Amino acid sequence: MAAHTSPDDPSTKELLRALRVDGSADLDRRDPRETFGWDKEGAAEVFAAEMEALVDLQKRLFADGSNSLLFVLQAMDAAGKDSTIRSVFSGLNPAGVDVNPFGVPTEEERAHDYLWRIHHHAPADGRIGVFNRSHYEDVLVVRVKDLVPAKVWRKRYDHIRNFEQLLTDEGTAVVKVFLQVSRDEQKERFEERLQRPDKRWKFRAGDLDDRALWPAFMEAYTDAIEKTSTDDAPWYVVPADRKWVRNVCIAKILRHHLDEIDPQYPDPEDGLDDIVVV
Ligand code: AMP
Ligand code: MG
Question: All domains of the chain, ordered by start, with CATH?
């Protein structure tokens, strides 16, 4: 089924080019409230069509069984990481998707190099892996909060590029998304979290410490994105103040990269045509 797009919609190619970081991340020139010419209804239609295509691609990825896709999701608090996973990835067959959150490292994790806890969760052939936060925290929160000396985190961009190249070379497509929420929208979402009994549990007082460090985080994000966005493992900056825009963007990014893998159903065994099932 073809996606219904209004004449004002950007072509997918143009959209992906706008979202993708090639050189400068331009975080302060991007608008987290961007709509790309969609309205809510139109976006929902496009989203539904994209999901249909994604379901088919995921089936083929699984059946083919020779490649995988790693989707890295990074953002400030309340930017919608959990909601993205719920909205987009829950539409796929859960048997083929592995979602892994990375929080404050445990004592055992801290006693190893920072990629130790990560590599183990890279997706196996045929599967889609989703990282809710990732190894990037080790050049983001770790840098902003001085958790290790600068001479230690500065070397990590090279490690990360090499690590992701290793994954790519071995058959895992690596796709990275920064959900860009505005500081104003984060404030509103925090206030809602504080007010709603069903959302309060998500709020930690520490979230306000990170919010206060916003400019330092944006600097760290800029550096991380610019230093590690490569042809094989690109970063996309997705406007995230409006969930319906965010969802379409993510679905289109995912579809593009699964299309690039171009997974195929394996050839059936010989002689199936002669079989009669009794
Ligand atoms: P949440 O995603 O809201 O559940 O929060 C997870 C928290 O873990 C965030 O505050 C992250 O900054 C923090 N975190 C994740 N990875 C690391 C890391 N490698 N070092 C320190 N803190 C981390
Ligand atoms: Mg949180």
Answer: 35-262 (3.40.50.300)
